TrEMBL record:
GO MF terms held by the record: uroporphyrinogen-III synthase activity
Protein name as catalogued: Uroporphyrinogen-III synthase
InterPro entries per the UniProt record, alphabetical: 4pyrrol_syn_uPrphyn_synt_sf, 4pyrrol_synth_uPrphyn_synth
GO BP: any one term: tetrapyrrole biosynthetic process
Tetrapyrrole biosynthesis uroporphyrinogen III synthase domain boundaries: 15-230
Signal peptide: none
Length: 249
């Protein structure tokens, strides 16, 4: 049986790992990164508030971003206009800020969301006069670039950091042993973390892994990096643990 490597960070990754451990002894939990909000991000807070008051479109890029927004802003101006890169983020925003009444987002699963589809939606609805894009310290450069290319002023407002986690201890025991693992990852940053920790002498072995991921852009990046066996799965897929176990057997 192949090892199952769960690289999804945050509470969702922890819940998946609990289910895997209840069903098999062959899983390893190695979240690709952790989140840090030790800085106060005063400038970003100012940009978000002033942007909201000016009528800028506030774009949130993930449920994690929404969570940190709620920590910083118990309330936002009722006039604030929002967009999200997908339905899970929009649902998180609605739960965190019930007064948010105007939210643009691509409807559907994680397979049908992302920066590209949000940009297409903004073109259909009419480009906003200004955007404040709220994210971690990196990410969503495609959306930033295409909006600016269309003449839309974009202010990037980071409110947390994503810190890559190195494999250590039991997280390393599977490297180079037996068949390459079944890997579940949810971002392009996770690919970089995986390769930096497992590459080198084990690079060829790693590229034969079976990888599940949640968006076509991540799948494309995996193919570009030389991974041959990559499947797409919806981010909130029921039975995900069972699917991973089935692939590992």
């Amino acid at each position: 049986m192949r090892t199952i490597l769960n690289m999804k960070p945050g509470p969702g990754g922890q819940r998946l790992q609990e289910e895997l451990e209840a069903k098999t002894a062959g899983s390893v939990y190695w979240p690709a990164f952790t989140f840090d909000r030790s800085e106060d991000y005063e400038e970003s807070v100012k940009e978000i508030l002033e942007g909201a008051e000016r009528g800028a479109l506030l774009i949130l890029v993930s449920p994690t971003t929404v969570s940190f927004m709620k920590d910083i802003f118990p309330q936002l101006p009722e006039s604030a206009r929002f967009a999200c890169v997908g339905e899970p983020t929009a649902k998180a925003l609605t739960a965190a800020f019930p007064a948010a009444h105007e939210i643009l987002f691509p409807h559907g699963s994680s397979l049908e969301s992302g920066s590209e589809l949000l940009f297409e939606l903004l073109l259909e609805e009419g480009l906003p006069p200004e955007v404040v894009l709220i994210r971690g310290d990196t990410g969503r450069q495609f959306l930033i670039d295409v909006l600016r290319d269309k003449g839309v002023p974009v202010t990037v407002a980071p409110i947390y950091k994503r810190i890559p986690l190195k494999a250590s201890g039991d997280q390393k025991r599977w490297i180079g042993r037996g068949e390459a693992p079944v890997v579940y990852l949810t971002s392009t940053d996770a690919i970089r973390t995986l390769e930096e920790n497992v590459g080198g002498d084990n690079a060829g072995w790693l590229k034969s892994a079976l990888v599940l991921t949640i968006h076509p852009r991540i799948q494309e990046h995996l193919f570009e990096e030389g991974f041959k066996n990559v499947e797409l799965v919806e981010s909130r897929c029921s039975g995900l643990a069972d699917k991973l176990i089935s692939l590992a057997e």
